[in-house]
Amino acid sequence: LRAPLRSIDGFSQVLMEDYYDKLDEEGKDYLQRVRSGAQRMAQLIDDMLKLSRLTRSQLNHENVNISEIATDIAAALQNEAPGRSAQFHITADLHAYGDEGLLTVVLDNLISNAWKYTSKKHHAVIEFGAQVGDKETTYWIKDNGAGFNMAYVDKLFGAFQRLHHTHEFEGSGIGLATVARIIHRHGGSVWAEGKVDEGATFYFTLPNSANINIPL
């Protein structure tokens, strides 16, 4: 799949560099669309491969301080956009029993989503908390961003499913599918609640270490 895409992208780049001035405005628009489509398809292929690798990779369970991971992710996002007005409320010293690398992927996807979908809010608020139970812990990431219509909640965690147009918010539609695969591999569950223009809350559970029972 990558080989023909490289050809399309490569030749369209040649056209952009050598023949762009010879095209009328409509031709320039078509060429830019071809290039953009090829690059987007290449990104989708990369995302599919990442999702496949995450499904097959070995789980290495350990005690993980996910509050520290969440704090690092939040700091990185704020450093990338220092002009944004956004508040993070991250509960301190939350722990989980699981694969640190994969749980980092989960948090990165969910927190980055919250960051993205609050980008149009003047006062964005993103929260990360948890409720410890006897057998499992429920974690959540809440935001006051774009939200979504609960009528379409079943589509959220499917690969390449999107509830917002790409011209509103960029994305490939693979992030939440990745989250779901990782959490299910850890023996947990994932779900979401939201309301249009009021925000969304994404929940996931992980078994406590004494109750771990990982599906094959």
Any descriptors?
216 residues; 7 strands; Heat Shock Protein 90; two-stranded antiparallel ribbon; 43% helix; five-stranded mixed sheet; alpha+beta
CATH class of the largest domain: Alpha Beta
CATH homologous superfamily of the largest domain, by name? Histidine kinase-like ATPase, C-terminal domain
- CATH topology-level fold name of the largest domain: Heat Shock Protein 90
Counted up, domains total 2
CATH architecture of the largest domain: 2-Layer Sandwich
Rounded to the nearest angstrom, the radius of gyration is: 20 Å
SSE pattern, N- to C-terminal: HHEHEEHEEHEE
Mean pLDDT, to the nearest integer, reads 86
- Beta-strand level of the residues, as a percent range? 15-25%
Report low-confidence residues grouped into runs of 5 or more: none
Structural class: alpha+beta
Question: What is the helix fraction of residues, given as a range?
Answer: 40-55%
- Tally the beta strands: 7
Strand order of the largest sheet: 2-4-5-7-6
